[in-house]
Amino acid sequence: MIEAAFFYLYAIILVVSAFMVIVSRNPVHSVLFLILAFFNGAALFVMLGAELLGMLLLIVYVGAVAVLFLFVVMMLDIDFAEMRKGLLKYLPVGGAVGVVVMLELLIVFGSWAAAPDAASHLGAPAPEGLTNTEALGQILYTKYVYFFQLAGLVLLVAMIGAIVLTLHHRENVKRQNIPDQIARTREMAVELKDVEPGQGI
Amino acid sequence: MAQTMVPSFWPALPELMLAVGAMALLLLGAFRREGKNMCVLSAALLVLAGIAILFQSGETTTFGGAFAVDPFIRLMKILAIVGSLSAMAMSLNYFRNENLTMFEYPILIVLATLGMLLMISANGLIALYLGLELQSLALYVLAAIRRDKLRSAEAGLKYFILGALSSGLLLYGASLIYGFTGTVQFEGIAAVAASGGPSLGLLFGLVFLLAGLAFKISAVPFHMWTPDVYEGAPTPVTAFFAAAPKIAAMALLIRVLFTAFPAISGQWQQILVFISLASMVLGAFAAIGQRNIKRLMAYSSIGHMGFALVGLAAMNQEGVSGVILYLIIYLVMTVGTFAFILSMRRDETMVENIDDLAGLSRTRPMQALALSLLMFSLAGIPPLAGFFAKFYVFLAAVKSGLFLLAVIGVLASVVGAFYYLRIVKVMYFDEPEGEAFEPMPRELGLLFSVAGLFVLVFFLYPAPVLKAAQNAAAVLF
User: Fold this and answer.
1) A119 at the B interface (CB within 8 A)?
2) Other C-beta atoms lying within 10 Å of the C-beta of residue A7
3) CA-CA distances (angstroms) from residue B212 to B132, B163, B208, B216, B313?
4) Nearest 5 degrees, angle CA B122-CA B125-CA B130?
């Protein structure tokens, strides 16, 4: 009973905030609503017992992706109001697509049947009495350590690529050098000149 | 808490050396901020890994069966390392002339090679995908490494977008295969396919997987990226693309088909026959109109992949050893040709049009002779090495009854001979325009002459290469 109540609470906030992402006038508000939607999605995952997925959603999407969005929205001068003008015009078509997708989902889930021997094929069934974070952690760094390390290498290459293709070492740029600033003495900065009266330097 | 055994690291020693070495070189480069000697160090790393592979023996798997080593895998790894080393040697002069000092370039080649070794060793779908992606990501960056040049950036972007699409297809296929067999290990998939027969879902997965892999070897109809990327990428990078990744992807294709899907070979044979036919024909006809020698080599590589696939479509041991032989000879011919293309310099700039070769026989007679040998060999004219490569794959196709494929293959190679011979004609019978090319740098000259000699004397003593190919192919049957 109380579970159902919380489910509807999170689900409704999720849908409403997702809607607000599209319609709010201020792009910063859109991103904030997106973050709210992510939080509610994470809450739904936790309710399903998939707490690892919930936390991943928070860390990856809220922590990194949404903050990146926020940067983009604030740093780029994009007229979002202009972009959103077409919303009403495209609403019928978009709505029709949405309805079709919804019907398809209903058909799929209405006739869904898991293969009877699917469970026997599981490569790594979750042990009883462990949270799924623990269960995953036990095999991720032992049985699947090879894949884990390979994925790390792929990310390393991606990082090298991003740096190689975008980083410019520009000459003649004045950078702050704190040791230099601290080491500066009065003698280095000030030069006293005797000025003859009426002559100038 | 379940007890876990620490897997044996010895089978993966060459890969570990490359991974750790690449990271050490990266640190070194980042601290020194310059590329001095980095090429030499990276080449030394590749040589060490190659030696480590030579010292391995036997067949084994490790990391829970995700990583396999056997004679076939070792031979392919050696070929991939040889391809990478030649590409590294070929880029030395280019970087000197263009005043480039990026230390990341050789490291990316090492990492791409690491990806190739990992995908050749892959014994399951996850390892396959991760190795492939490691290699591809490094290649995308290499294609765009001259970010100040529009063509290079365009090539990188094009390769990246199409490559991502093909990776998506491959992953979709892999997920379908996993869904319908319940395992990602090649042996497990083979067992399910053998007991259950070709279920519809498994076939769908196989088709998507093949589409993804066909993209990586640039076989028709997934070849569209090849000419543009070959033309736009810096020439040493193009040389690298044409040699090592093709071999690794072909090795992966052979391993996937013969270890995971031998039970439903009738299903994938039709696909291979079509891909091979289309690649041979397109490679032969589309290259005729090309004026740029890099684009010509792109179409030539498409055609050659088609010829190599003939041996694979034959599905017998002779066919596979024919493919291995083909890859070895293709590697030598490609490296030699690109070593020459890289030395086509006039007035401090690189030229890459076929017309620029006019009169080479008078200005640089020895180079013209060696290049003619390579062109005759690429066209498959006896007694040069390229003829034997084609001969063995066609022989295997005839033995398994694929007469149509063999006949069309021979016809396509006759059509293809036209554009290789046109290069010879331009060199020997056209009047020279402009001055002679600048003298060839030592390392390019060495690669070029070794390749020329190899194709010339291969027929005198082919036994060691043939034997190696046969031994490697025997593992798969």
Assistant:
1) no
2) 14
3) 10, 9, 6, 7, 17
4) 70
Which band of pLDDT confidence, cut at 50, 70 and 90, is reported for residue A122? low
Contact criterion met (CB < 8 Å) for A143 and B183: no
Token pair for B237: 């990078």
Which of chain B's residues have a Cβ under 8 Å away from the Cβ of A121?
A: 181-183
Distance from CA of B16 to the nearest CA of A (A): 11
* Cα–Cα nearest to B281, from B175, B167, B409: B409
Q: What is the mean pLDDT of chain B?
A: 91
A115 CB within 8 Å of a chain B CB: no
Quick one: which of B264, B433, B253, B439 has its CA closest to B340? B439
* CA gap A125, B348 in Å, rounded: 64
Distance CA B408, CA B276 (A): 10
Tens of pLDDT, residues A54-86: 999 999 998 888 888 888 877 776 666 666 677
B70, B477 in Cβ contact below 8 A?
no
Distances (CA, A) of A37 to A10, A14, A25, A72, A102: 9, 5, 17, 19, 20
A115 min Cα distance to partner chain B (Å): 10
Chain A nearest-CA residue for B29 = A160
| Cα A147 from Cα B366, distance rounded (Å) | 50
Whether pLDDT at B25 is above 90: yes
Contact yes or no for A138 and B1 at CB 8 A: yes
Residue of A164, A167, A169, A170 for testing the chain B interface, max B β-carbons within 10 Å: A164
Chain B partners within 8 Å of A142 (Cβ):
4
Residues of B in contact with A123 (CB under 8 A): 182-184
Residues in chain A, total = 201
Q: B127 and A150 in contact by Cβ < 8 A?
A: yes
Tell me the whole-structure pTM to 2 decimals.
Answer: 0.88
Q: Which residues of A touch B66 (CB under 8 A)?
A: 146-147
C-alpha pair distances (Å), B34 with each of A165, B9, B102, B123? 16, 33, 7, 38
Q: Mapping DSSP to helix (H, G, I), strand (E, B) and coil, where does residue B3 land? A: coil
Instruction: Quote the CA–CA distance of B195 and B291 in Å, as a whole number.
Output: 53
Q: Evaluate whether B100 touches B253 at the Cβ level (below 8 Å).
A: no
pLDDT given at position A106:
92
d(CA A157, CA A151): 10
Q: What are phi and psi of A111, to 5 degrees?
A: -110, 20
The pLDDT, as a whole number, for residue B302 is 95
Which tens digit of pLDDT belongs to each residue from B330-359?
A: 999 999 999 999 998 888 888 889 888 888
Copy the structure tokens of residue B338. 């690109």
Per-residue pLDDT of A126-174, as tens digits, reads: 777 888 888 888 888 888 889 999 999 999 999 999 999 988 777 777 8
- Which chain B residues contact residue A145 at CB under 8 A? 7, 63
Write out the H or E segment, with its range, that includes residue B325. Answer: helix B317-342
Write the residue in B4, B64, B130 that is nearest to A150 by C-beta: B130
